[in-house]
Amino acid sequence: MKSVIALLCLASVALAAPQSTNLSPDHHAKTIRDERVDHGDGNFNYVFAVDNGIETEVAGSPGAEGAVTMRGYYILPLETGGSARVEFVADTQGFQPSSDIFPTPHPLPEHVHELLRIAEEFERQGSQIRRTRTRIN
Q1: DSSP 3-state helix, strand, coil percentages of the chain (rounded to 5)?
Q2: Which of 35, 47, 64, 80 is the most exposed place for a label (fewest CB within 10 A)?
């Protein structure tokens, strides 16, 4: 009985493993492009690509107060086929990615736009809004 249970456990582990991959299990991704340039003054760029569809290209330059500003993109293969491209900027405002694969928020209802307009008008008039949402003059 114990051997049957052990055999069933092994079978369930084998079935739980990913069944379909684009590459064989013994395949090691190979670098197909690796270009790096460091200008020595804080400016740099690199391009990196692997035969499994992963790719990135980044350019960087010195920013404010010793920070580095980077712009670039990366491409990742999707499980459903095809690939996803993510472009980004990384600077003093943080990492700012953009891509068609990211979900987008629903548009705000019209009444919210009206409330924001009213709040901006109050600010222009010098009013402050307390956290309790009551108006003070």
Answers
A1: 25, 35, 40
A2: 80
CA dist 19 and 128 (Å) reads: 60
Q: What are phi and psi of 97, to 5 degrees?
A: -85, 155
Cα gap 100→54, rounded to integer Å: 17
Long-range residue pairs from 63-72, CB within 8 A, at least 24 positions apart, any chain = 63/91, 63/92, 64/92, 65/92, 67/91, 67/92, 68/42
Query: Which one-letter amino acid corresponds to residue 76?
Result: L
pTM above 0.90, yes or no: no
Tokens of 35: 């270009």
Q: How crowded is residue 60: how many other Cβ atoms within 10 Å of its Cβ?
A: 19
Vertex 48, ends 78 and 100: CA angle to 5°? Answer: 35
Type and span of the H or E element at 118 = helix 110-124
CA distances from 108 to 51, 105, 123 (A): 43, 9, 21
